[in-house]
Amino acid sequence: MAMTDSYRQQHRELADLQRQIEVLLVPARLAADAQAVRSLLSSFLGKLNIHLAMEDRSLYPRLQAGSDQDLRAMAHRFAEEMAGLKREVAEFGGRWTAAAIAGDATRFCEEARRVFAAFAARIGREDKELYALADRMV
């Protein structure tokens, strides 16, 4: 079992929740019933917080303390970059209650697509770059 297998599994679970949310990003539908998307968003945010805490407390410190300079530098860069996205996702999740979604469904859909695109790009890079190097080095 590779060191990053559990993190990759969490990425797959988050991507699955993201796809479930994206299917619901239809403003007219959300204006009528925003609770389903808000419930999925809450699940997504909860899983994401657990994932990020595991990375912050275990994976990144371990990689940054390793002997390979390239891996240390990459882990540091990824940890720094994630801080901004983490903040953005938290603000997004806190701002969009079910009532707020129903009240401005079009804006919610636009923001959700932007946030999810950034998140998908990030986990794709983590899987292909950081995790791939970590699995070879550790």
Describe the 3D structure.
- The structure is a single chain.
- The longest helix is centred in the last third of the chain and has 33 residues, at 105-137.
- It is built from 6 helices and no strands.
- 23% of the residues are buried.
- The model has no long low-confidence stretch (mean pLDDT 95).
- It is mainly alpha-helical and 138 residues long.
- Helix 1 runs antiparallel to helix 3 (35-64) and helix 4 (69-95) packs antiparallel against helix 6 (105-137).
- It has helices at 5-23, 27-32, 35-64, 69-95, 98-103, 105-137.
A few lines on this structure:
With 138 residues, this protein is an all-alpha fold. It is built from six helices and no strands.
Number of helices: 6
Percent strand equals: under 5%
Estimated helix fraction: over 70%
**What average pLDDT do the residues reach?**
95
What is the tally of beta strands? 0
Main sheet makeup: none
Structural class: mainly alpha
* Dominant shape: elongated
